[in-house]
Design a protein that fits this description.
Elements (H helix, E strand, L loop, with lengths): L8 E4 L8 E2 L22 H14 L4 E6 L9 H14 L5 E8 L6 H9 L3 E5 L4 H7 L1 E2 L6 H13 L5 E6 L7 H10 L4 E6 L3 E2 L2 E2 L6 H18 L5 E2 H10 L16 E4 L4 E3 L10 E4 L5 H5 L2 H12 L3 H5 L3 H4 L7 E3 L8 E2 L2 H23 L4 H7 L1
Parallel strand pairs: 1-3, 1-12, 3-4, 4-5, 5-7, 7-8, 8-11
Antiparallel strand pairs: 2-6, 9-10, 12-13, 13-14, 15-16
């Protein structure tokens, strides 16, 4: 009897780490050094078909997930994604469907792009760091020009086409300086779903100037939470808070960095290289290549299983006894390099910030969830909170 297939996500990098922007906190720009190609190009049509065919074959179905990422994935060109959709239709079994998500900086989006994305039911995430003043501190194009206005226009183009994009906002030294301005700017875009991603970049002498500190992270999240519970219920969903509510309701986090284990979101690079995780694209975590090994075999390999389980098995003693562990799973392994209270290495560097958020927000979330179960609507809940 064969083992039942488990859900997973493929994060496809059709142009590898190539991007039309440069910003100091990007973790992916140097990953092209690991490509087997002398110079990164666009994923070939043959490799694209193998990727789609093998992803479908490895999936339990009936929905098959594809996340198109980068670098900047729109550099692959619209025709690349038109071909991808054709190949998905060719290889999907009857009754199955593809779920496509495009994560973009928005600079290349136009009406033609948006019409295609709408027609083919793509979910779209746009990276935008809150307000114009904050965004343009770090997010500049190759010529050094600001990009906020173009990102904002991309959001508007998507909305005009009938797509409500998700917003991805980093939490860095600039954003934590004015949480309310960041929140109001994101709220003003009217998108309804926001992810906050902390920036931690290690250097020889500590951390980069763009990195967020544990205290800054905790302060920022607490202020965002307060703004949300008094102004945003029923209008804007914030991924971290939604995941916390999911856990309070008895579920398990669906976001990898918060889950007890990981390893079900693998990367396929433009040369066919398969890696354990988006944050671990390096020779040590290269699982193989689609040209020589089936995707399912790599996904279920001992190396990938060990990678996923190490998230749980490598917890520090402080993590294991922490009352908030179920909410964060010990944090993302890429940022487990601090010393714990006991002096153990491998502790999550932003632990203090998350502890502050959980202590501040969980009691309020419990009240909100209780009132919601009793039939109160968002406006009434916000009035009582």
């Amino acid at each position: 009897m064969t083992e039942e297939k488990r859900p997973f996500v493929v994060m496809a990098k059709p142009v590898g780490s190539r991007c039309n922007m440069r910003f100091a906190y990007c973790y992916y720009l140097d990953k092209g050094q690991y490509s087997s190609h002398r110079k990164q190009s666009r994923m070939s049509n043959g490799l694209l078909e193998q990727l789609i065919k093998q992803t479908i074959q490895a999936s339990p179905g009936p929905a098959v997930s594809f996340v198109w990422h980068g670098g900047e994935p729109t550099l692959a060109g619209l025709e690349f994604y038109q071909r991808a959709v054709e190949l998905q239709r060719k290889h999907l079994p009857p009754g199955w469907q593809a779920w496509n998500n495009l994560q973009t900086n928005g600079l290349l989006l136009n009406k033609k792009w948006c019409a295609f994305l709408k027609e083919n039911h793509f979910d779209v995430g746009v990276s935008i760091d809150g307000s114009e003043a904050v965004h343009d501190v770090n997010r500049r194009d190759l010529g050094g020009n600001p990009t906020y206005e173009r990102a904002r226009q991309a959001v508007g183009l998507l909305q005009a086409a009938g797509i409500q994009p998700d917003l991805l906002c980093t939490v860095n030294a600039a954003t934590v300086a004015d949480p309310e301005a960041v929140y109001r700017a994101l709220e003003g875009l009217g998108c309804g779903w926001v992810q906050f991603i902390p920036i931690v970049v290690r250097t020889e002498h500590g951390f980069s100037p763009e990195s967020v500190t544990p205290q800054g992270y905790g302060d920022f999240l607490c202020q965002i939470f307060d703004l949300w519970v008094h102004n945003g219920l029923g209008q804007m969903d914030i991924q971290l808070f939604a995941e916390m509510a999911r856990i309070l309701a008895g579920g398990e986090a669906s976001v990898c960095w918060m889950a007890p284990a990981c390893g079900r979101a693998i990367v396929v690079e433009e040369d066919g290289g398969v890696y354990a995780c988006d944050h671990f694209v390096d020779p040590e975590h290269r699982l193989g290549n689609l040209a020589s090994t089936k995707l399912e075999e790599l996904l279920e390999s001992p190396a990938q299983s060990a990678f996923g389980q190490s998230k749980r098995e490598s917890l520090t003693s402080q993590c294991r006894r922490c009352p908030w562990l179920k909410f964060c799973g010990g944090g993302c392994p890429k940022d487990r390099f601090a010393l714990s209270e006991d002096g153990e290495p491998g502790h999550y560097v932003l632990c203090g910030g998350l502890q502050r958020l959980f202590a501040h927000a969980v009691p309020v979330l419990e009240q909100i969830m209780d009132m919601s179960r009793r039939g109160l609507g968002p406006q009434e809940i916000m009035g009582r909170i």
